[in-house]
Design a protein that fits this description.
Blueprint (H helix, E strand, L loop, with lengths): L11 E6 L8 H10 L9 E13 L2 E13 L8 H5 L5 E3 L5 E3 L9 H5 L6 E3 L4 E3 L5 H5 L5 H5 L5 E5 H8 L18 E4 L12 E3 L6
Parallel strand pairs: 1-9
Antiparallel strand pairs: 1-8, 2-3, 2-10, 4-5, 6-7
Length: 212
């Protein structure tokens, strides 16, 4: 009998290890393929972030440059602002804590998209409704891992009840280029890259903005 991955009260979330990610985008492609997403709709995105500063010692200036990847999708936040702004209550939360779109209620107004600091909800022009990651609810119902987690060749992605993820990996979630985590309290844990920058450091920039 398959294990139940949709337990009530589990409060599922993601863990992402920046030090293991090589930017291959297998997670992104697996998500698009599994959910048959149209062009322009990408629920999981791999952000390339790079920058640098100078380390000054006396009259000597040494460059301190960095580059790393961050794979991000919906974080099924504790304070889900997408749910707060939805005028039709289409943005809903399942008993297991994951947030999903009830398409029977959605009018495609995009308020959720504009409110989410992670840009997770996206309009599917083919259906006229908003769409987003539901942590592969159908797969989980069958005892399977989410498609993005299974596809990662370097095992940079993990998922599970957020309390268990925090106990296993720590509580870091404030790494650039992600937004201030105090806004939504995301169910996300990051194992930072060795050169990871604080979310408010302003020392880098996203180098693939047209892809995300």
């Amino acid at each position: 009998m398959a294990e139940d991955y949709t337990k009530e009260g589990a409060q599922y979330g993601f863990h992402f290890d920046q030090s293991l990610c090589n930017g291959c985008k297998a997670c992104q492609i697996a998500c698009k393929d599994k959910h048959d997403l149209p062009v322009g709709v990408t629920w999981r995105r791999v952000v390339e972030y790079s920058g640098g500063s100078w380390q000054v010692q006396g009259n000597t200036f040494e460059p301190n440059v960095f580059a790393y990847y961050t794979s991000v999708s919906c974080n099924h936040c504790e304070n889900a602002v997408c749910m707060e702004v939805c005028p039709t209550t289409a943005m809903s939360r399942r008993p297991d804590g994951t947030v999903y779109v009830d398409e029977s209620k959605c009018v495609g107004c995009r308020y959720c998209q504009w409110a989410c600091p992670y840009g997770a909800p996206q309009l599917n022009a083919e259906t006229g409704h908003m769409s987003k990651c539901d942590l592969c609810y159908d797969y989980r119902s069958e005892g399977k891992d989410p498609a993005c987690v299974s596809a990662c060749p370097s095992r940079a992605l993990d998922w599970g009840p957020i309390d268990e993820l925090r106990e296993k990996y720590g509580e870091t979630n404030s790494v650039a280029p992600l937004p201030d985590p105090s806004i939504t309290k995301p169910h996300l844990v990051i194992s930072p890259h060795r050169d990871a920058q604080a979310w408010d450091s302003g020392t880098g920039q996203i180098t693939n903005p047209k892809e995300i």
